[in-house]
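Researcher: Next entry in the queue.
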Amino acid sequence: MNRQPPDVRLALCELWQAFGGIALLSRYGPDAPWPHSSWSRDAHGALTPRLRAVVALARPRGRIPSFLTAGVTSRRASVADGLDEMMRTPPGLVRDELAREYPLAFADPLIAALIRDPEVQLNYLAVEFANFWRAAIEPRGAGLARSLEEEILFRSRTLAMSGGAALLHDLGLPSERTGGADRLTVVPMLFADGTHWWSVADGRTVVSFAARGAGLLHPGPKRDGTAQPQRADRLAILLGRGRASVVRELAVPITTSALADHLGLAASTVSQHLAALVSAGVVQRHRAGTRVLYELNREGVTLTECLMNQQPADAVELTHGRGIR
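Model: Structure for this entry, 325 residues:
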């Protein structure tokens, strides 16, 4: 009997972005590798012992407790929606899941307190998640939101044209990595530390993958196009300031008009830069419906990372995810 193809959906969830950021800081502290290095230095002060304990609970198997994932079932769930849902989780469900799925739960006093008094402790946890979001992620929110939306658009094309199995293969998530689940929701994460986080919510398995736009977390030129003061901008020296600013934005697929709006440049100027970069073999373009998206190819990513004094192999993995191409 042939197995039916999996029912695969794409979704955005801000609470999972927050969890990914907490996991990165728990693992690396203020010294996360590129492209999260600058962000981790700015954000590590927002990490609390309670948030660290939740990540430690999930890390052995990469399974996130379901009370942190309820909002993923919608197309887009804000952090406020996710936290409201979390605080409404029945206390009995919290106790049962932690006792059943997390054998190390009682080892940490903060998690033990969550088991004893879920209602009160979930409220504490929600406050700390909200504070972390405001301090560590919201200041970069506009660029991150656009990056994730473009990622969903890009992946939706594969899903629509080739089906769920092809999408999972592109993301490095074959069936043996997802437990053979028939109903899957996949969530892009910009704060990815190499772990495929997963959970089960409302009968669906939810699993994360590393989105390609994480380069936005690394400081590039300011909005007015001037260079960051902390180091020489070798990319701008080689390409010119305007073209270098375009290259930095191409860590995530983006249209010409969106790129022009974001950089404050004329669309004709952006088109000229893109045409030159495509001719140079460092940028690729592809069509998604009626839109044409541009992004760095592997050669472009490697060139950019070398000029920024990074380690290309590590950075390509973080920016593009494992097995995406």
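Model: Residues 10-213 form one domain.
Researcher: Noted, moving on.
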